[in-house]
Amino acid sequence: MSDALYNSRFMKAVRREATDTTPLWIMRQAGRYLPEYMAVRSKVTFMELCKTPELACEVTISARQVLGVDAAILFADLLPILEPMGLNLEYQKGEGPVIHNPIHTGRDVDRIRALDAMDSVDYVFQAIRMIRRALPNDIPLLGFAGAPFTLASYCIEGGGSKNYVRTKSLMYNDESAWNVLMSRLVDTVSLYLQQQIASGCQCVQVFDSWAGCLSPSDYRRYVLPHTKRLIQQVEPFAPVINFLNGNPSLHPLQREAGGQVMGLDWRCQLEDAWKTFGYDVAIQGNMDPVSIYADLPVLKQRVADVLKSAGGRPGHIFNLGHGVMPDMNPDHVKAVVEYVHELGAKK
Ligand code: CP3
């Protein structure tokens, strides 16, 4: 890694070193709330956008630049890696992702294969190389992938879910098939993240967006060993942000699963979570995304509250507790970036 990247605000915070001000990026920073994104998106489908490196590069770079955030995140999605594993994926208008041949039984797991090469998703690595060349030399690029539980839930439910009945039923009723599925996902995703890093990402985030539906004992038994193995296989190559959404009672287990940075949702006080994790990890978060709808003075106060909760301790990366929503005002998102940099400045 170049000196400029190594000494960037974001990478320093990952290592819990002091920075001039609090660094931030925003989950789904390149998304439909941005006119720059919509200008590109209006000409192609979402899947075409993901699979065309020039366009993925353009939306990654423009979002980073118009917001002035301290890191870029690769424009891609959690689910296309499942296609070459044997799942038939489609993004339907207004419906979100749909998998047409989901796993219903333990035996269906047999048709899901672990990838031992990454040629089928080469478009992702081409995009990373282009983005790295186009970014300012002191702005890190984040790669990402889904955590095994979140990916398994899509494989089994065939889309989003309210209660994860199918996923949990397979997990409870056929633990050996469940472990085979999770292992294939871990093998594939660890190779995928390693290749993202080799192509030019300085750090990667693992999204466990839906693990919050699990009790601590179920997370410990059915998920922790797999997520832990994934993170262990990636961390020798770059730092990992372990983001877990939806259930603060999982914090001690999230910490056990590993990662140099713990990603928080907004359902907890950052100061309490950091105390639980221990001060030997960095922390990312955690303003409620709905704060973006607030009037600017209220929004500024809410940014200040999160910074206060972090207590000026080195190792805080500001973010929302989950992604920006499509109808949010881009000027308010830009205002968050200004407020964090202004209020986070070390005197
Ligand atoms: O953060 C970024 O700017 C990088 C790009 C990114 C996208 N998806 C682009 C996207 C990232 C990091 C993701 C991750 C992702 N994808 C997650 C984990 C993050 C989270 O929210 O917890 C999940 C669960 C997915 C799966 C997915 N992709 C869903 C459920 C949907 C539909 C959601 C919706 O709001 O319609 C997508 C589509 C998607 N991924 C869009 C974008 C910008 C919108 C697609 C469009 O342009 O029509």
Topology (elements, then pairings):
Layout: H1 3-6, H2 9-14, H3 35-41, H4 46-51, H5 53-67, E1 72-73, E2 89-92, E3 96-99, H6 122-134, E4 141-146, H7 148-157, H8 165-173, H9 175-199, E5 203-208, H10 216-234, E6 240-244, H11 251-257, E7 261-263, H12 270-277, E8 282-287, H13 296-310, E9 316-320, H14 330-343
Parallel strand pairs: 1-4, 4-5, 5-6, 6-7, 7-8, 8-9
Antiparallel strand pairs: 2-3
The structure holds coproporphyrinogen III.
Coproporphyrinogen III binds at residues 27-32, 41, 46, 73, 75, 77-79, 96-97, 144, 160, 207, 209, 245, 323.
Largest sheet composition = 7 strands, parallel
Class computed from helices, strands and strand pairing: alpha/beta
Determine the strand fraction and express it as a percent band: 5-15%
- How many helices? 14
Helix content: 40-55%
Outline the structure in words:
This protein has one domain: TIM Barrel. 46% of the residues lie in helices and 12% in strands. The protein is built from 14 helices and nine strands. It has helices spanning 3-6, 9-14, 35-41, 46-51, 53-67, 122-134, 148-157, 165-173, 175-199, 216-234, 251-257, 270-277, 296-310, 330-343, and strands spanning 72-73, 89-92, 96-99, 141-146, 203-208, 240-244, 261-263, 282-287, 316-320. The relative contact order is 0.14. The structure holds coproporphyrinogen III.
